[in-house]
Amino acid sequence: MSLPDVVAAIMFVGVIAYAVFGGADFGSGIWDLTAGGDEAGAPLRSLIDRVIGPVWEANHVWLIFVLVWLWSGFPEPFAAVMETLYLPFALAGLGIVLRGSTFAFRKFAPTLGSARLFGILFAVSSVATPFVFGAIAGAIASGRVPLDGSGDPISSWTGPTSIVGGVLAVLTCAFLAAAFLTAEAEHRGQPDVALACRRRAIGAGVVTGAVALVAILVLREDAPTLFDGLTGRAVPLIAISGIAGLLAMVTLWQRRLVLARVSAIVAVVAVVAGWGVAQYDWLLTDVVTIDDGAGARPTLWALVIVFLLAGVLVLPPLGYLFWLTQRPGWVARDQRPSMP
Q1: What pTM was computed for the model?
Q2: Is the pLDDT of residue 88 over 90?
Q3: Mean of the pLDDT values across residues 186-213?
Q4: pLDDT tens-digit series, residues 317-331
Q5: How far is CA 104 from CA 84, 99, 109, 216, in A?
Q6: Three-class SS state of 232
Q7: Rounded to whole angstroms, how far apart are CA atoms 312 and 305?
Q8: Which candidate among 22, 103, 111, 192 keeps its CA 20 to 30 Å from the CA of 65?
Q9: CB under 8 Å to 77, separation ≥6 — which residues?
């Protein structure tokens, strides 16, 4: 494995981490949109607020990591991506900012009407943002990003692969979030909410599997290089993803929630990793390889060193944050009624 391969693999670890942590975050907002009316949807929306409140900003660390890594390690492909896909990236950035601000504003809205408005904006941006990220991935995977950055600003990310990628991103986020929320509701002693989330997770899993099968047919025509990889060397990972997804749905129904949550994570990690393996060794599919698009070797070595340092300085506090939110004391304080 060459040095550029190592740097690209590290960058893809960030993509996988964002798919898992950011995906669960976005997916929670998707279920906020479908929770029901003010009274009927209040328990689920309250759970969502309490679960993602401590960590929603931390999840975007992975997106920043990936973008900085691409910019530093592969500057010419980064410029090509940004010149061609500037519009979806702008929409994604707007969605992240709108989602975060309305999530905060909803808690302090002076009237019920404004709280509803902020809630709608939060939920809609939670759907739109992962769709746009999926469309960006589809544009890259289908070879619609030329190295000179001259790709069409609209058709480059609205092709069949991008549409399928966007839909799958939304569904995957919904499935992952519902699995997480089921465990959180059980953990917090809310069996009715847990049952509702469990049904949502199973339904989302079934729909995601069906759309994935259709996606294979789309890729065969629109992204043949990716299709060849997915039906070739990436088959074991795709199989693992499918098996893990089925296992997650079965164990959710059986209320074996630790195994269900782990299985859901494995399903997402395996399918995203399968995309990476299928596309290797193209950085921009059918346009430039990882080796050809890499920057200067001193920069690549510096990135490897920074990654090792980040593993010591960043990952332990981040892990502690997630561990802390699962402690019984945290949950007990979180469930105290707010002061009038």
Answers
A1: 0.90
A2: yes
A3: 91
A4: 877 777 776 666 555
A5: 33, 9, 9, 39
A6: coil
A7: 11
A8: 103
A9: 70, 147, 283, 284, 288, 293
